[in-house]
């Protein structure tokens, strides 16, 4: 046996007796308490607390005013022509014009073939109303939308003395 082995007393022949352990008394679990009755948060005659506020929306910057006040109306005219051509059977007969009426209000006139008039107007005028809604939103201002068939448009130009037809 070396001095190293003996240094830690690993190989010595002396036996060290460990002290006897005594058992600790076991604790009984504490009895469960019944939950306390709930209290009302606010008296009945007061308003309930407000919900937390939503974070503030970022501010929207107004669009820069275009140098051309008619740009929105021209865009709306192009959109109406595009939508009408997708709805009808004869897209080549669709024409869309923008002009000013007697009260100085912009009017977009949609002329379609008489056979396609029902498709553009729709049941109870729902398609026509939807077209008007989309066109007014695109125009960014007041605009009227007139829907005519090509026969009505031809009669209107004959009755109009300003066109010279008569």
Question: What topology emerges from the helices and strands here?
Answer:
Layout: H1 3-7, H2 71-87, E1 95-100, E2 106-112, H3 117-121, H4 126-139, E3 144-149, H5 150-159
Parallel strand pairs: 2-3
Antiparallel strand pairs: 1-2
Helix pairs in contact: 2-4
The span between the termini is 136 Å
The helix/strand order is HHEEHHEH
Q: Please work out how many helical segments DSSP would assign.
A: 5
Counting helices, strands and paired strands, the structural category is alpha+beta
Strand arrangement within the widest β-sheet reads: 1-2-3
Largest sheet: 3 strands, mixed
β-strand percent reads: 5-15%
How much helix, percentage-wise, in residues?
25-40%
Name the poorly predicted regions.
Answer: 162-166
- Could you tell me the number of beta strands? 3
Can you put this structure into words, describing what you see?
The chain is an alpha+beta fold. It has five helices and three strands, in the order ααββααβα. Strands 1-2-3 form a three-stranded mixed sheet. It is elongated, with a radius of gyration of 44 Å. The chain starts with a helix and ends in a 7-residue tail after the last helix.
């Amino acid at each position: 046996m070396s001095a190293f082995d003996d240094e830690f007393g690993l190989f010595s022949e002396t036996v060290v007796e460990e002290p006897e352990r005594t058992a600790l008394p076991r604790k009984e679990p504490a009895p469960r308490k019944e939950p306390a009755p709930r209290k009302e948060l606010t008296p009945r005659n007061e308003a309930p607390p407000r919900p937390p506020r939503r974070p503030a929306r970022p501010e929207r910057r107004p669009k820069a005013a275009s140098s051309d006040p008619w740009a929105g109306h021209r865009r709306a005219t192009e959109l109406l022509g595009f939508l009408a051509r997708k709805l009808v059977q004869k897209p080549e007969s669709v024409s869309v014009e923008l002009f000013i009426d007697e009260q100085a209000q912009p009017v977009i006139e949609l002329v379609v073939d008489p056979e396609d008039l029902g498709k553009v107007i729709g049941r109870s005028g729902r398609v026509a109303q939807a077209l008007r809604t989309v066109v007014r939103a695109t125009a960014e201002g007041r605009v009227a939308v007139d829907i005519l068939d090509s026969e009505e448009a031809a009669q209107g130009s004959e009755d109009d003395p300003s066109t010279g037809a008569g």
